[in-house]
Every structure is written in C-alpha cells, then in structure tokens.
Amino acid sequence: MRKKILVLFVLVLSVLSFSQIKDNLGSFSEEETKRIEKRMEEISKNSDFDLYINTYKPGENTQLKVLEKSVIIDMVKVDDEHLNVKLSFSQDIDISLYQEELENVLGNLGNLITEGENEKYTMELLTSLEDVFNRMGEDKEIQKEKFSKSGNLSGVFLFLIFLVIGVFVGKNKKVREIFSKIVKKG
Questions:
Q1: In the predicted model, what is the mean pLDDT of the chain?
Q2: Which of 42, 80, 101, 156 has CA 20 to 30 A from 182's CA?
Q3: How far is CA 44 from the centre of its chain?
Q4: Residues forming a β-bridge with 84
C-alpha cells in the first residue's frame, strides 16, 4: 500500500508545474542556483509559464522535454570563456510579436555572459522575460476585450436589422401579404 502511495505521489509531483535548473556545466554555485530558482518560481507563478535552464557542452544530448507553456533557456559552452544562449518556447506560446525584442535582450546582455557573470546575466534575462510575459498577458486581455465589444456590437446590429425588417413588414400591407404567402407555402 505504501509503495502505491509513493508511486502516486511521484506521479503527481512529475505532473505539477515547476521551474528547474539542469546545470551540467557547473555554471552556478549552490547559492546562485537557489537565488535563480526562487526568481524562476516567482515568474512562473505570475505568468503561468514553466521556466527551465539547461547548461551543457555541445554534442551532449541533454534536451529537456518541452511541455505546454514552457520556456527553456539553453546555455551551451562554446569555449572556456563563452556560453551561447538560446531561448526555446513550447508551441502554445506565440512570441511572434516579441521576437525582435527577445533577440535584442539576448544581444544587449551578451557582455555579461562573456565576462563570466552567469548569475547576473541569468537574473537580467529572467527579468526581461517577465516583462515580455506581462505584456503578453496584457495584450491577451486587450484582445479579449475587443472581441467581447465587437461581439456585443454585432448582436445589437443584428437586432436592429430584424427590428427594421419587422417594422417594414408590419407597416407595408403588400410586403405583409407576400411574407404571409411565403410562410404559408413553407
């Protein structure tokens, strides 16, 4: 019975959303990892996106499974002093409107990573991602408002059309007769 409960507990934990760092290069100290993970969890709670950081050497097969609403920051060691950083988004995240901004963020922060300031770079990158996530949420709310307003206007417009038709049919005796013939035949 205890084994079944333990297996169930492990399965539940594996399904829950969380953020993690898979530091195969040892790019972060234990304290840095704790600070970064805490920041990642804050962002995940506010944005509903799971964040992952994956550091590795070229050629290593350390790709993470990308689930829904996931963002992966891959840091690949190019040489002793340089890391190449790549952002990957799950397919359910539309970043097309923010692509250029994200590329600029990566470019602007590039000097920090070449100076070996991995924690500072990562924290700045996470802050920039949080800003983008916030705007994505705001844009989504604006789109919902526009859709609901246009839906309300469409309903009012259709009501007015039917009202005009009804008044026209009611006031015009010839149209009323034709309309009643059509209804009787149908």
A1: 77
A2: 156
A3: 10
A4: 76
Biggest CA pair distance of the chain:
91
Token digits of residue 67:
């689930």
pLDDT-derived band of residue 35, with 50, 70 and 90 as boundaries?
Answer: very high
The secondary structure of the chain, three-state, reads: CHHHHHHHHHHHHHHCCCCEEEECCCCCCHHHHHHHHHHHHHHHHHHCCEEEEEEECCCCCCCCCCCCCEEEEEEEECCCCCEEEEEEECCCCCCHHHHHHHHHHHHHCHHHHHCCCHHHHHHHHHHHHHHHHHHHHHHHHHHHHHHHHHHHHHHHHHHHHHHHHHHHHHHCHHHHHHHHHHHHHC
pTM of the full predicted structure?
Answer: 0.64
- Smallest CA-to-CA distance from 20 within 37, 32, 43 is with 37
Q: Which of 8-12, 67-71, 108-112, 131-135 has the lowest mean pLDDT?
A: 8-12
pLDDT tens for each residue of 110-139: 777 766 788 999 999 999 999 998 888 887
Q: How far apart are CA 177 and CA 183, in angstroms?
A: 10
